[in-house]
Amino acid sequence: MKEYVFLHKLVDEGIKAGEIRDFSAELTIAMFYQGSRAVVNLILDSDSSQDENKSIEDGFQIIWRGLAKN
After folding, report:
1. 28: exposed, middle or buried (Cβ count in 10 Å: 0-12, 13-18, 19+)
2. Rounded to two decimals, what is the model's pTM?
3. Which of 60, 62, 39, 1 is nearest to 9 (CA)?
4. Cα–Cα distance measured from residue 19 to residue 10, given in angstroms and rounded to the nearest whole number
5. Rounded to 5 degrees, what are φ and ψ at 32?
6. How far apart are CA 47 and CA 61, in angstroms?
7. pLDDT digits (tens, 9 = 90+) for 5-41
8. What does residue 25 show for φ and ψ, rounded to 5 degrees?
9. Per-domain boundaries in the chain
10. What pLDDT, on the 0 to 100 scale, is given for residue 66?
11. How many CB atoms are located within 10 Å of the residue 12 CB?
12. Which residues touch 56 (CB under 8 Å, ≥6 apart)?
């Protein structure tokens, strides 16, 4: 579980620095993890011609910035 401790510390530091919204670190880690899994599953299960790098970038932006336009 060293990875979890590292991620928790990273999220806590991001919150303190004002770079990440002040949500529960556990929830933030879980949402990021599940969002990342969704992108990987989409790529692995997809027969589409969609660019994998674009899917990865778009997935990251959705997770990092959310769905809101502003």
Report:
1. buried
2. 0.75
3. 1
4. 11
5. -65, -45
6. 22
7. 998 999 999 999 999 899 999 999 999 999 999 999 9
8. -60, -40
9. 23-70
10. 82
11. 13
12. 39, 43
Residue 14 has which token pair? 């991001």
Q: How far apart are CA 70 and CA 53, in angstroms?
A: 24
Contact, 32 vs 39, CB < 8 A? Answer: no
Under the banding of pLDDT at 50, 70 and 90, the label for residue 2 is: confident
DSSP state of 22: S
Q: What is the pLDDT of residue 9?
A: 93
- For residue 26 the two structure tokens come to 């556990």
| Number of other residues whose CB lies within 10 A of the CB of residue 36 | 14
